[in-house]
Amino acid sequence: MTDPVLDTLLLPIEDGRVSWPDGPALFLRARYGHALNDAPRDRLICAQTFKPAVDTLSRAGFTLRGDDNDAYDLTLVLPQRQRDENRALLARAVASTRDGGVVLAAASNVEGAKTLEGDLAALTGGVDSLSKHKCRAFWSRIDAAKIDRDLLEAWIAADAPRDIGGYMSRPGVFSWDRIDAGSKLLIEHLPHDLSGRVADLGAGFGYLAKEVLTLCPGVTHIDLYEAEQRALDMARVNLEPFGDRASGYWADVTRGIEGEYDAIISNPPFHTDRADRHELGQAFIKTAAAALKRGGVFLMVANRHLPYEETLKSAFKSVTVLTETGAYKVFWAVKK
Fold this sequence. Notes:
- It contains eleven helices and 18 strands.
- By secondary structure, the protein is of the alpha/beta class.
- The chain has two domains: about 5-155, 3-Layer(aba) Sandwich (Rossmann fold), CATH 3.40.50; about 160-335, Vaccinia Virus protein VP39 (Rossmann fold), CATH 3.40.50.150.
- The strands form four sheets. A seven-stranded mixed sheet has the order 3-2-1-4-5-7-6, with helices on both faces.
- α4 (about 85-95) packs parallel to α5, α4 packs across α6 (about 150-155) and α7 packs parallel to α8 (about 205-215).
């Protein structure tokens, strides 16, 4: 699959406007694509918190590392969808780059490339840029005297975890500043007699899991599976009051999970960037079916336009629509 944003990110290096340094370079929110094949694997440090991207980078031979205090001559950035998280990423990139080094970022035009370019310029005092593939690459050579330190500190602070009304969350996490309407609808139709061992697939910051433990006293334990480490960190905080009744796992659910469960709940993801990816939800359904005990139940909410019924009917003995609105359907399925 092509990755026009990654392709555009590396264009300034390919045409000589920016150079790979002799020492290590940092890649924030790194992801693998063919354009990265010529990158120096032994000198490119990749930082990523999304498990599928981490696994792909690892298989391709790149070094993964979390936060550190090292300084780099080149920092690459692939911004995300949420502006506070993106500003924090740019601020972190600037803070991680030596005086005289380069911060290089790229984004698609529909994801606000011009806005992000302006954000980097505001931090550093100016940028260069180029456009291709309906995307934009923009970069700044760091002059420590020109950095807006107040802005840098404010943008890093804006990414901090915060209370959104009984739940800790942070920018960039799914539905980070509110309870998702689909998840809320699922809980409104949650049978309170669920019992035994339960799993939450795509747990986000832990709303569904916390509600299940609160409303279903017969549930002895719930395992939370989440691909985004930033979300899982918040879920672990939110589930702390339940002690050893909850466990969190950083995992790509589409690759399957281990264990046999009495019940599984899920509000599965269905998009990558702005494109619908209904195969993600279908993979969640198949994973749930494989991980349930015979007679186990799967409770799922999904946007009503997504084509999940046939997958559910092929994987489960019976499928019932508990409720539907103009936007969502809540399914109850029993394993064969």
